[in-house]
Design brief:
Elements: E1 2-14, E2 21-23, E3 45-46, E4 49-50, H1 51-60, E5 64-67, E6 91-93, E7 99-101, H2 107-117, E8 120-125, H3 132-143, H4 149-156, E9 167-170, H5 183-196, E10 205-212, H6 216-228, E11 238-246, H7 256-267, H8 269-281, E12 290-298, H9 317-332, E13 337-343, E14 353-356, E15 359-362, H10 364-371, E16 379-386, E17 389-394, E18 397-402, E19 404-411, E20 414-421, E21 428-435, E22 440-449, E23 467-469, E24 474-475, E25 477-482, E26 486-494
Parallel strand pairs: 1-21, 2-5, 2-13, 5-8, 8-9, 9-10, 10-11, 11-12, 12-13
Antiparallel strand pairs: 1-16, 3-4, 6-7, 14-15, 16-19, 17-18, 19-20, 20-26, 21-25, 22-23, 22-24, 22-26
Helix pairs in contact: 3-4, 5-6, 6-8, 7-9, 9-10
């Protein structure tokens, strides 16, 4: 029996729009060809940024975009990417294929992109190979509204007014590609960097490097180090974990068991959120520091014929369900998670959009983000799900996957419910009960569903898109049939 109980009177917290954030790294064709084509390109653009990609991103309303990495961040020196483009140095991208990095897309271009799509910029500073001075001056270049050499330099680059960048990361994956620090050594470095990263008239949101996956030891040792040195958390606002659920099979070739296997791996995000927040609470009981999932998503083998270091992968209905179930986890834990950034925006890993020359296609994951837009800034309400399970085999192990997942949020007189059915071939019946004196007087719904390998291509860009579905959307108790392998978004008007 599948039963969903939604208590409209039990508000968990406001869903921070930033959990619907994105991540754009100088990796493969994410920046160049994906976001940036240059002013002289035949591909329609505005100031070098692709118009079709901007239009696609506006549909999903990214609240924040993280840049320039990723591993690239800790080998990036921001002064390479400002000033006249013809004078910018060409470097080598040592992390992602040792290909030339022309630095045509730098700070000004990134912030312009963010303003075009309505997102806040989130800049990750270089700790691994950079200096405190370098990050301090980058903040000044972006944010200082007075008269200084760096403010004049910003004005000469086209922005007399401050760029007003609020979100700053102090390094990326500093346990690995960002310097191979121990938690204690990184704690010392973070404290030193954060001391000198000043707002220049703007309140900054400073983010520390968290663990790889659900590494509780990293979290405990980092926070213990800060506490040991009698630091009061005034200069740390966010703590960023990374979790990739990986793959099972390839991006488009997988068995039914592998379909279930990857979805089960995605659901492990809930354990990470709960356990990481608990570990942080032991040292930060007032929750002054927000939990962030800085990078997350699927990670399949690169598509055949493409540079394996470019991490270009197709995106199917399976990826869409991973995205939906993960976003539902974040919604249900709106009191714990303040930001999350899926990897990555364009042409890399679990992308929203794929491009090939002038062609562009929106992925199933991109459509999930569009379907989930109403949750942004809404009040998450207590949602209890009783679900049947599906048995599957992963290697030599027999596992179970709950078939139904979802979340609900309230905004004014509208209740937004998102649900997934992970059953590969069969519909499931669900009973939906509204508590807290709530009753629906009408509504509408859309569904994203198809054969489990369904995806969009440049030849068939709308093979998999959301479509309206007719349901009973009246009363306090409803029965809905979820199509197989589906993501459903429901808008209920409450009386």
């Amino acid at each position: 029996m599948n039963k969903i109980t939604i208590n409209v009177g039990d508000v968990i917290g406001t869903i921070n729009p930033n959990i619907y954030g994105h991540f754009a790294e100088h990796l493969g064709r994410c920046i160049y060809e994906g976001l940036w084509v240059g002013e002289d390109s035949d591909i329609p653009n505005t100031d070098g940024i692709r118009n079709d990609v901007v239009a696609a991103l506006k549909r999903i309303r990214p609240p924040v975009i993280r840049w320039p990495g990723g591993c690239f961040a800790d080998d990036y020196h921001w002064e390479d990417g400002v000033g006249p483009r013809e004078q910018r140095p060409q470097r080598v991208n040592i992390h992602w294929g040792e290909v030339p990095e022309p630095n045509a897309f730098g700070t000004q271009e990134f912030v312009r992109l963010c303003r075009m799509v309505g997102a806040e910029p989130y800049i990750v500073g270089n700790v691994g190979s950079g200096t405190v001075r370098e990050l301090r001056e980058w903040v000044e270049y972006c944010n200082y509204g007075g008269d200084s050499t760096l403010a004049r330099r910003r004005a000469a680059d086209g922005s007399p007014a401050p760029l007003n960048v609020t979100y700053w990361g102090v390094g990326n994956e500093n346990w690995g590609c960002g310097g191979s620090f121990s938690p204690e050594d990184y704690g010392t470095e973070f404290r030193r960097y954060a001391t000198f990263v000043r707002g220049f008239g703007r309140q900054l949101y400073v983010i520390a490097c968290g663990p790889a996956g659900n590494d509780i030891e990293w979290t405990v040792r980092f926070f213990r180090k800060l506490r040991k040195d009698y630091w009061d958390f005034r200069n740390i606002h966010g703590f960023a974990a990374h979790y990739y659920c990986g793959t099972a099979g390839t991006s488009t070739e997988y068995s039914v068991d592998q379909w279930y296997e990857l979805l089960e791996k995605g659901l492990r995000m809930e354990t990470l959120v709960v356990q990481q927040r608990a570990a942080m609470d032991a040292y930060d009981p007032e929750r002054k520091v927000g939990l962030i999932v800085d990078e997350w998503g699927t990670w399949h083998p690169a598509e055949p014929g493409h540079n394996p270091r470019f991490l270009y992968q197709q995106n199917t209905l399976r990826d869409a369900l991973v995205a939906a179930t993960t976003l539902d986890i974040f919604n249900r834990h709106a009191d714990k998670v303040v930001m999350a950034n899926i990897a990555q925006t364009i042409n890399v890993l679990q992308a929203m959009v794929l491009t090939d020359g002038a062609a562009m296609v929106m992925t199933p994951t991109g459509y999930v983000y569009e379907m989930y837009v109403p949750h942004q800034g809404a009040a998450a309400v207590r949602t209890t799900i009783e679900s049947d399970t599906q048995s599957f085999r992963a290697g030599d192990t027999e596992r179970e996957l709950p078939l139904v997942a979802g979340s609900a949020s309230l905004k004014a007189k509208f209740l937004y419910v998102t649900l997934t059915n992970s059953q590969a071939t069969d519909p499931v019946e669900v009973s939906v009960e509204l508590l807290g004196g709530a009753s629906a007087i009408g509504g509408r719904a859309r569904v994203l569903t198809g054969e489990i390998h369904a995806h969009n291509t440049f030849d068939a860009p709308e093979a998999l898109v959301p479509t309206p579905i007719t349901w009973v959307t009246e009363g306090s108790t409803m029965r809905w049939t979820l199509p197989p392998a589906s993501v459903v978004a429901v808008e209920l008007q409450l009386g």
